[in-house]
Design a protein that fits this description.
mainly alpha; 2 strands; about 5% strand; 6 helices; two-stranded antiparallel ribbon
């Protein structure tokens, strides 16, 4: 079973861009903050740019910056922009249809998964990037305003 960390990394990247308040940020700096390869960050930046969250310049000295105010970016929008996998998925092989449980479990799980996905999206829609940045700044003394 695989899980994706694209959403968590995307929120991290957007939080850095919000923290930098319009300053162009390189993929190398973002990769250093996330502790990953800059290629991973550049691929994610393409998704974030396509969603309209960031603007990215090319060439020496260029970088990325937010194109929307942090308060106007919800985590639900970020999730939708970067996650391609379903958060809940059935087993990759069909269950044994001759088994009474195997025959009926897909329908039972589909109902639960649909409800859980709706709840996930609803919960993520309540939080903006500005909320995340505020939480980071409150909980981490090194991230306080004025320190860049």
């Amino acid at each position: 079973m695989r899980t994706s960390c694209r959403f968590a990394v995307a929120v991290h990247v957007l939080a850095v861009l919000a923290y930098k308040e319009g300053e162009a940020v390189t993929s190398a700096l973002l990769a250093g903050s996330v502790n990953t390869n800059p290629v991973v960050i550049r691929r994610l930046l393409l998704l974030l740019q396509a969603a309209g969250f960031i603007a990215t310049g090319k060439g020496a000295g260029a970088g990325s910056r937010l194109s929307r105010a942090p308060g106007r970016i919800t985590l639900a929008e970020v999730y939708q922009a970067v996650e391609t996998e379903e958060p809940f998925a059935p087993h990759s092989k069909p269950p044994n249809r001759a088994c009474p449980v195997g025959h009926c479990i897909p329908a039972a799980l589909d109902k639960v998964f649909a409800s859980a996905k709706a709840a996930l999206r609803q919960e993520l829609a309540k939080t903006s990037l500005a909320d995340i940045l505020e939480s980071v700044q409150e909980s981490c003394p090194r991230s306080g305003k004025g320190r860049k």
